[in-house]
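Incident review: delayed structure delivery

Summary: a single-chain prediction request sat in the queue longer than the usual turnaround. Root cause was a stuck worker, restarted by the on-call engineer. No data loss occurred. The affected request and its eventual output are reproduced below so the record is complete for anyone auditing the incident later.

Affected input:
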Amino acid sequence: MPLLDHFRPPLLNTTSWEGFYGGWPMAIVQELNKVLPDEFTAEPRVHMGPYFEIDVCAFEPDASYPAAGGDSENSGGIATATYSPPKATLATDVDFGDQYAYEVLIFDESRGRQLVAAIELVSPANKDRPKNREVFVTKCAAMLQNNICVSIVDLVSIRQFNLYCDLLQRIERTDPVFVPEPPSIYAVTCRTCKVNERPRFESWAFPLQIGQRLPTLPIWLTDILPIPLNLDASYDATCKALRIRS
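Output delivered after worker restart:
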């Protein structure tokens, strides 16, 4: 199916971009499973809001441990002093921002589930504020520094920022494909490797257009092992599953 604009009418009046983004990662996983070697696994991940994971056990009292502030008899007859911390040197309101992440992670099971590649689907929240754009770019840069292949797929037509170009600014480079005016929607794969023992950055960038097909991205599992990610096939499968029509 040709690329649709999920962020403007008429499609926005009949379906939500959140619904599409919630389903697309699994369709990408299904597409990757057609070409992934046996020792690699792909998983969809969706984070909505702050990155906090709380163990349910934290809310369930264990009868084998005394409650905080219990008396010395219930704690084995050993009295414990109550600790009062000093006054904080800084106390201020802070807004860490909501970080929405729609992604697919690929792990190498033969290397202890080492993360080797990530496909990041850009959401409006990733582009709406300088702080959020900085967090997204920093996340991608950190993965690249650890030799993790990073693909960025940005369909957010209502925000004119280009996070891939922001990433390139970190290494003081520009991509000739995006000169002179970087597109607001695009797909790109980036990786780091070594050539003659020297670190090297490589990328495969594709400007996108509404009404045209999505490209196939190379996904690098190792320095010498790429696989194809047919974005168009996963996009089409997601649209069909959600009954999204052009």
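Verification: The chain has one domain: 11-60+96-203+210-241.
Action items: add queue-age alerting; document worker restart procedure.
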